[in-house]
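By way of example, we now present a protein record of this kind:
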Amino acid sequence: MTSSAVATTDRSEFRNVLASGTVVGAVTGVSVVAFIAISRILPPGLSRDLLESVLVLAAGVVVSLLPGLRAAARTAEGIAGAAAIGLWGTVVFMAIDIVLLRPFKAYPWTWDAIGGGSTWWYLPIWWMLGTFLAWMGGMLTAARSARGEVSMLQLAIPVVAGAVVVTLASKLLGCPAPLPAQTGAAYTAILAALALFANARKG
């Protein structure tokens, strides 16, 4: 999807935020279901870790970069629109989580144990993370679009490549976190760094 596929000026109107955020939330829900399926079907090992990590990267690209493209982010208004799309996407996923995932006990007990037994500890974190990813993606989209039309692939390649390098480095250094978690953290860090750098160059 290219930014030319949507408007060429900032789109932060309420209808676009709701429609685009619903798409982001649905993608998030499908990705979480796929992740759970992989973790239950495949035995523990490198193959499962790699497949889960690829899924994390693919989902990360969509939830972080699609909002900026759908908002046609060019200025602060479009970047704010992208962040709003990301936030609404997390609300849509929350509905999917409450209606479908929780009743079928999709998560292991250790997931709740992280929050001291609470079943809702991760939702505020996801609201913040989803909004942050879309915000950074909007900033990157706006900065890159100032130099010409961009596609999701053009935006994603340097972020994904950087995340892979950082993940491999952390793995070689003996980071004990699961590989998919390392991949997600690396993607978030690289996206933020590239967005801030691109925005500084634009200024």
In short: Residues 1-7 have pLDDT under 50 and may be disordered. The radius of gyration is 17 Å. The chain has seven helices and no strands.
